[in-house]
Amino acid sequence: MRSEVRAQMRTQELMAHSGRLPQLSRNSLSKAAGARLLETYADLARRGEHLFSELLAGETPTQWSHYPEDDAIDHGSGFQWFYHSHSPEDRPDSSEHGHIHLFAHRKLWFRRLRSARELEFAALAENSHESASTRHLLCISFDAKGIPTSLFTVNSWVTGDLMLSAPTTVAILDRITLETGHKEVDTVVECIVKLYRAEIQDLLHARDARLMGRSKPSVLLDESLEVLSELFIQLDSKLNGLAV
For residues 79 and 178, is the Cβ–Cβ distance under 8 A? Predict the structure, then answer.
């Protein structure tokens, strides 16, 4: 391989890992994610299957149960998720079928904890328990048809996991790959994260602003603060805008 080609490829790799991809590349990534998403749902439709058919074994989900029971874990990439649903009484205004909680394992973030950004975030949000093995990244809500309907963030008491600052979380999400054995769900989660990168970045900054705007003692344990930020999404409109 010619040296200048190799250098260009290395530059692109470094930019991708640092979160500084040019807008043209961002658009290309979004289009690729959109095309892959459409293909996944088309394949499901051809087989007459629901996105969560395999995960739920064709059964109605039991409220509050984790699917899969021990979570879906990609030990190679360091990402993890589970799907669950709340009771109608718990969320009376919601029409969601359930939602996915997405996490990052320690290897994706432990070297970042001593950065000035994370030390500042830890001090402001009392996010100081470095021994925790995962960090919560994002939630994706789905309707009864298995279509994503919203993106949201939750307070630490909801899952028992801590969180990272918005910029660090975005940088980690930029690296997402999933291979947990639940192919279609992995693909949808991965593609939604890529397709809605800009919106997720805004969502996470809104989360941080809400945390920082409260009195620090016990803010992460404040049960009046559950959903910290949320964005309702229209997947059809998003895909049409990309012309995938």
Answer: yes
Q: Measured between alpha carbons, how far is 134 from 161 in angstroms, rounded to an integer?
A: 6
Residues 117 and 167: beta-carbon distance below 8 Å? yes
Give the closest residue to 156 by CA, choosing from 89, 85, 227: 227
Q: Where are the domains of the chain?
A: 3-242
Amino acid at 118: E
User: Using alpha carbons only, what angle is made at residue 26 by residues 228 and 165, rounded to the nearest 5 degrees?
Assistant: 30
Taken as a whole, the chain contains a residue count of: 244
For residues 109 and 135, the answer to whether their CB atoms sit within 8 Å is: yes
d(CA 33, CA 196): 10
Q: What predicted TM-score, i.e. pTM, was given to this entire model?
A: 0.85
- The Cα–Cα gap between 137 and 81 comes to 10
Region of residue 242 (left: phi > 0; alpha: psi -120 to 50; beta: else) = alpha
Tell me which amino acid residue 224 is: S
The pLDDT tens digits of the residues spanning 113-146 come to 889 888 888 776 665 555 678 999 999 999 999 9
C-beta separation of 68 from 182 below 8 A = yes
Contact in structure between 102 and 138 (CB atoms under 8 Å): yes
Could you give the CA distance from residue 24 to residue 10 in angstroms, rounded to a whole number? Answer: 17
